[in-house]
Design a protein that fits this description.
Layout: H1 3-19, E1 29-34, E2 37-40, E3 56-59, H2 76-85, E4 91-95, H3 98-106, H4 115-120, E5 125-127, H5 135-142, E6 150-153, E7 157-162, H6 165-186, H7 196-203, H8 206-215
Parallel strand pairs: 5-6
Antiparallel strand pairs: 1-2, 1-4, 2-3, 4-7, 6-7
Helix pairs in contact: 2-5, 3-6
Length: 219
């Protein structure tokens, strides 16, 4: 893929995050890695308003920002540190999904409750509240990106990673749905999580392996 393809793909998934109410206003930020650079949403823009040429190019190694007249998202360090920490990450989606935020206000550990969650996300990590946009948050996220593809941020939101934008984005949707299901079920009684054996059984399904393979493709 070319950098132009990456920019167009970012626009597509940025629009999805807004359409599915995973962010509101100018909240959230997403990025993708390409040939030693990351392309990150600009500061102050609603994600669905970003044009392809407005994604800000940042050199992952040096942190140098290409001048296109726009500032990168204030969470630039979080994205930069995560890419440096894990070379397998191809995209990062940071959103403020309402059920995820609500979950972090009352709980920490999101159990694995259903097959899609087990197959596409696995165990979700948790980071207690850290002041946004700081190197402290960037360090906290970087410390966990080798262990989790999804991180709940206490009182803040969600960060998901993937080998490409498609994988990272759909993990966002699945974690938000998981938080929603948990909160609904817990209003009646403690939700039943999958056992370790049930979790492992799902992971071993050939059909799930095929679906994961499809998610690795950009389109």
């Amino acid at each position: 893929m070319s950098s132009t393809d990456i920019r167009n793909e970012l626009c597509r998934y940025a629009r999805k995050t807004v359409a599915n109410k995973l962010v509101v206003g100018p909240g959230g930020n997403i990025s993708a890695r390409h040939e030693g650079k990351m392309y990150l949403s600009p500061s102050g823009f609603a994600l669905d308003e970003i044009a392809p040429e407005q994604w800000v190019e940042v050199d992952i190694g040096t942190g140098a920002i290409a001048d296109n007249g726009l500032r990168p998202s204030s969470e630039v360090l979080m994205h930069l540190y995560a890419y440096r920490q894990n070379p397998n990450i191809g995209a990062i989606v940071h959103t403020h999904p309402p059920y995820c935020i609500a979950f972090t206000l009352v709980e920490r550990d999101l159990p694995v409750m259903f097959p899609d969650q087990a197959a596409l996300v696995g165990t979700t990590g948790y980071i207690p509240y850290v002041l946004p946009t700081t190197d402290r948050l960037a360090d906290a996220v970087a410390a966990k990106v080798n262990d989790f593809s999804a991180l709940l941020l206490g009182n803040h939101g969600l960060v998901t990673t993937g080998r490409n934008l498609r994988e990272a984005y759909y993990r966002t949707e699945v974690v938000e749905e998981s938080a929603k299901i948990y909160l609904i079920a817990s209003s009646i009684r403690k939700p039943k999580a999958l056992t370790e054996a049930e979790y492992e059984e799902i992971a071993s399904l050939e059909s799930e392996a095929y679906r994961i393979e499809l998610l690795q493709k950009m389109k």
